[in-house]
Amino acid sequence: MRAPLALFTLAAPLPLALAACGDPAPTYVDQAWVRLSPNKDMPSAGYFVAHGGDMGTQLRGVITDYALKVEMHESLTRDGMTTMERIESVDIPAKGKVAFAPGGKHLMIFGVNDTAISRGKMQFTFLMANGDRLLVDAVIRKPEAAAAPVPKAGNAPAP
Q1: 53 near 61, Cβ under 8 Å?
Q2: What are the residues facing 136 on neighbouring strands?
Q3: Mean pLDDT of 57-84
Q4: 6 touches 18 (CB < 8 A)
Q5: In sequence order, which residues have a C-beta less than 8 Å from that of residue 159 and are 6 or more positions away?
Q6: Least confident window among 44-58, 82-96, 120-134, 145-159
Q7: Which of 4, 10, 85, 110 is most buried, judged by most C-beta within 10 A?
């Protein structure tokens, strides 16, 4: 009778031990979109939100097959003047988030491919310092869509 009781006692903590060994929450990227430049010779801009998992990491770069080049930039205001600087990496804190949004951090996307424009989306690969490569589809917003004002209630747009 002692042997079965001893096995039960040893096996009881196993579910508790397994529950503590769950996979850590991953870093992920969502809300990705591209504001297409009205001038094909000028770069377009890309935006997204990076969410940190259980461990912090760094975004080291972004690549795509649908453009000639992608760079990370940040808009800064110094002495009343707004400038833009290239950034090499961005820290993504554990369980935190970093937004790439108009007026702040953003992607500069040079030479967007006509195929991506006609499809209305392009895929990016986000290169993380921890070795992860995150594939994310970004919706392409054409210049007309990005700049079109939303009519206020009761106001009909002029013809």
Answers
A1: no
A2: 124
A3: 95
A4: no
A5: none
A6: 145-159
A7: 110
- The two three-digit tokens of residue 123, written as one number: 């895929």
Look at 50-59, 121-130, 141-150 and tell me which has the smallest mean pLDDT: 141-150
Those residues with Cβ within 8 angstroms of residue 50's Cβ, 6 or more apart along the chain or in another chain: 27, 28, 29, 59, 90, 92, 97, 98, 99, 100, 126
Query: Which tokens is 122 given?
Result: 């392009």
Which residue is associated with the tokens 């554990």? Answer: 94
Higher pLDDT, 10 or 75: 75
Written as six digits, the tokens of 29 are 């990227």
**Residue of 25, 93, 98 lying closest to 62 (CA atoms):** 98
Task: Give the length of the chain.
Answer: 159
Written as six digits, the tokens of 89 are 């990496």
Task: For residue 74, give Cα distances in angstroms to 77, 115, 118, 121.
Answer: 10, 28, 28, 23
Can you tell me which residue has the tokens 């870093």?
Answer: 27
Q: Which residues contact 55 (CB under 8 A, 6 or more apart)?
A: 24, 27, 94, 130
Listing DSSP states for 5-37 in one string gives HHHHHHHTHHHHHHHTTPPPPPPEEEEEEEE--
* Residues facing 137 on adjacent strands: 123
